Amino acid sequence: MMAFRSVRSLALGALLVGLAALGGCKKGKDANTAVAAVEPRRDPPAPSGTISLQGMYTYMADAGLFVDCATREQWPVATEGDNANLERAYGKAKIEPGSPLLVTVEGRLEPRPKVDRRGKENNLIVERFVRTWPRETCGSMTKVALENTRWALLEIRGETITVTVKDRAPYLELNPSKRSAYGFGGCNRFFGTYEATERTLKFEAMGATRMACPDGMDQEQTLFRAMDATTRYEIHGSKLVLFAGDTAVARFEARERTDSEPSSPEEPQRPANTP
Q1: Which is the most buried residue in 66, 82, 87, 262, by most CB within 10 A?
Q2: Which fold, 151-254?
């Protein structure tokens, strides 16, 4: 009996040891699972919304790469969206394959699996190709300030403007000290106030003189309506674009004042021969 009891005790002891080991393995597995559950995510976050970007774009071997001028970050360019127009513009630029070309696009960043590597990286999805800047670089395209700049009008709703008064192109200027907006519409001088942030722009309490001109009145009224509709802006180098939502309504270019243009709505125009 004693031998039998000893064998049974040994067997029972072995069983208990085995169960303890099994429990330890399970506990260790749960612990590892818990550690894995709190391990920080390594994939890049996906920025929300479409953003305007300017950067150096290269294309070679059916692959595009975009280097952002503002942050110096680089992203592979996805083949979807408006990428075909971007590739086509690069081909028309007459530069060596693989050479960088300054471009402006509107798009978004989206994490995608890395090519031949584990993990993910942000890819640039081009939703709208805007334009190329041949012979320019990120360093040469210094952004002009929105305020205290004479912005000469170039286009209204996609139509190139016509200068109807000799040596006086329509222009816009913003004075931050008074929050005043003023300029010349092609026939009449206009004035009012504005509110602006880094991206938004809204004109308020706008008025104008009431001169009648033989030409340019329709163009001027189109400009005034475009300014009334403006909600935001973008500056690309020396170019200013006003938007109503996502629609570009007017384009301007930074220029020096001429002697025939008053510097403010209160300052009368000087005769040409006045010292």
Answers
A1: 66
A2: Lipocalin (2.40.128)
